[in-house]
Amino acid sequence: MLFIHDTSCISPQLSFGDVDLQLLQPVVNRRLMAKEPDYKGIPPGILRRMGKAVRMGVGAAVPLLQRAGIPEGIILGTAIGGMEDCIKFLNQIIEYDEGMLTPGNFVQSTTNAVAAQIGLMNKNTGYNITHVHRGLAFEMALLDTFMKAEEQPDALWLTGAVDEISSYNYNIERLGGWYKEEIVSNEDLYNSGTKGTLAGEGAAMFLLSGIKQNAFAKIVAVETIHTDDAGFVAERWNRFLENNPSDLIISGDNGDSRLNQYYAHLIPDPNNGTDLVRFKHLCGEYPTASSFATWLACYILQGQPVPGSLYQFPAKNPGYKSISIINNYKGQQHSFINLSCP
Amino acid sequence: MEKEALKLQLKQQIVKFLNLVSTKPEDIKDDEPLFGDGLGLDSIDSLELIVLLQREYGININDPKEGRKILVDINTMVDFIEKNRTK
Lengths: 342, 87
Hints:
The complex is a heterodimer. Chain A is of the alpha/beta class.
């Protein structure tokens, strides 16, 4: 059991600082770009070297560390890390004919740069690891934290995930057919009936421990599956719900008509009290988007109102105490996460 | 190139290479220390400046002791560039 003591999220919505999810931030050029704050907690000399992924990751972590001090360790998930800086560095190799290269872009481009930078800024020499399992990177970070919390229940862990939209990965993914060709608004994402989705990005951070005291939520279970068999996913999901009864389901439906099959079994039974919400019109699709859903679940479990735009069907049972998230990335990597009040 | 024009060009290149987002080229004084209390650059920036000299002016600095004398302020850098540039 992992208890959640604090959260922070930088996303395309107003999720950082004064949260306002009622005011939907629109898609621009098929992308949901993060609303980056002023990053007042990051020294300007360090901030100017940071690529976007590092900025967002560190920026989301800073308020938690300011409130809680130095954690026992830092456990992050990211699929692509600082891809924009990586491409800048590779372009320099070509431009300067493999000559003398500047270190900045390379240092910032590695996937572990975010966790490393957080550790350096806080002089944290503890456990520092970055999981890079594409669409399950955040879930792997959570599972790692589960194991660490079993070993040291009293310790506090900074766990989270970050991924950015870079022009390189956006173009490659678009050529691969993963983003919509037509212009689609947030509100119309789920009704488009076409393949592809909206590109997204963001960073979500959590302070976790094995201690219930002062926690506002807990992560009860995390399950991951690699498969393209929708029937198998449905079977495992039903078993997950039997073990973790939930009054709200957060679905990772991203409006891609090819992936509807993985969410078709979610249509709620009108006789039970379970509600269903979707979130990808808020944050877009990215490999660690389930971290945004986890932040959203925390927000809801703290009694905050669920925006009407999230509900797939009219709400029956607000005042949720147990929430399960189902997500998949590119129809191959599936995850289930259950959270509840402590 | 006139010395003053070279100074302005160098300041523009420093702002661009080091991504000094809150500094304008004209804000950098010719005799302001680049490191420490002046512009506040650090050791990673010194590497960036050495690469800048190589790429933009064809100057190689192989001896770190030599670098310390050159990367003091805009005046010392411009003097060195004028004497040693190959492009």
